[in-house]
Amino acid sequence: MAIDPDIHTFLNQLKQNGFPDITTLSAEKARLAVDHSALSPKPIRNNPDIDISNIVIKQDNRQIPLRIYKPKENAAPFPVLVFMHGGGFVLGTLDDYDGFCIQIAKAANCMVLSVQYRLAPEFPFPIPVEDCYQATRWIADNAKLLCIAPDKIFVGGDSAGGDLAAAVALMARDQNYPRIEGQILLYPATDTNFHTASYQTQNTINLNREMMQWYWQHYLPNKADWNNPYAAPLKASSVDHLPQALVITNECDPLHDEGLAYAERLKAAHLLYDYHCYAGMVHAFPFYANAVASAKKATEDMIARIAEMIKTV
């Protein structure tokens, strides 16, 4: 399992340029350090194909910011992807994912509603996942207003966002609402077990075992929650009656094994739409797409897989 050579070179350059070790920082300082790093994407306010707007919804005594990406030239009602960003439950903003959400909306001819859930440690579990679930409920409740197809609601996210999307799918099943058509889990965190083979062997400066422990400790300060399936979906007693799933993993990613394990559980329950592992890729490779050709190619392929699922399921 060798890292793609161009990715390897790029990560070495990041290290030489002082990419921060977040485990030595407070959550607040880690956010500032990442925001000022070379990897922090610039927000996109205008796009020729996609209308971008912001709203704040009120649901279950919560105020939850959403960013809406809507194709300009195509007729409603649209399928919708409720997207939950990554960042280890501690980092990440809507701005970070503008480009990614625009690509999905364009490729899949769908609306994307990106959720700015509250972050740990200020707002630990279960607040972030409940924010995401309540946002999904609101979107389903307001499908007509939003011009979306109520039978084509997908949830998805990357990394910690993949964990949140899987948890929202579990919550929706357990509460019998809303109906979720599919879940899109991109290199998801699904477990609180740091002893898998990929945790032992796949450690880079962008994600390693110590960093994941730092993230989980901020998200789950109560040890009793470490076995809660809404925090760690792999621990769910059953995956029956969940939506069809697209699961993506990366070969050189400490989260590879838990993502694969969740895909295998879904496959056994006949709920796996597709699984793909990107050879040589590391965690969160789309953030390197502008600098590394192999990451750009993998990102384009992943967007195509997402679009295919949204169009066909």
Explain how this protein is built.
With 313 residues, this protein is of the alpha/beta class. It has a single domain, classed as 3-Layer(aba) Sandwich (Rossmann fold). The protein is built from 10 helices and 8 strands. It has helices spanning 5-16, 27-35, 98-108, 127-141, 143-146, 160-175, 197-201, 209-219, 256-268, 293-312; strands at residues 50-59, 62-71, 78-84, 111-115, 148-158, 182-186, 244-252, 272-282. The chain has an 8-stranded mixed beta sheet, sandwiched between helices. Helix 6 (160-175) links the parallel strand 5 and strand 6.
| Strand order across the largest sheet | 1-2-4-3-5-6-7-8
Low-confidence segments, given as residue ranges, are none
Largest sheet: 8 strands, mixed
Range of helix content: 25-40%
Distance between the termini: 32 Å
Number of strands: 8
CATH architectural designation: 3-Layer(aba) Sandwich
How large is the share of residues in beta strands? 15-25%
Shape call: globular
**SSE sequence, one letter per element:** HHEEEHEHHEHEHHEHEH
Radius of gyration: 18 Å
CATH superfamily: Alpha/Beta hydrolase fold, catalytic domain
The oligomerization state is single chain
- Chain-averaged pLDDT: 95
User: What is the number of domains?
Assistant: 1
CATH class: Alpha Beta
- Say what the CATH topology is: Rossmann fold
What class do helices, strands and sheet pairing give? alpha/beta
Count of DSSP H/I helices: 10
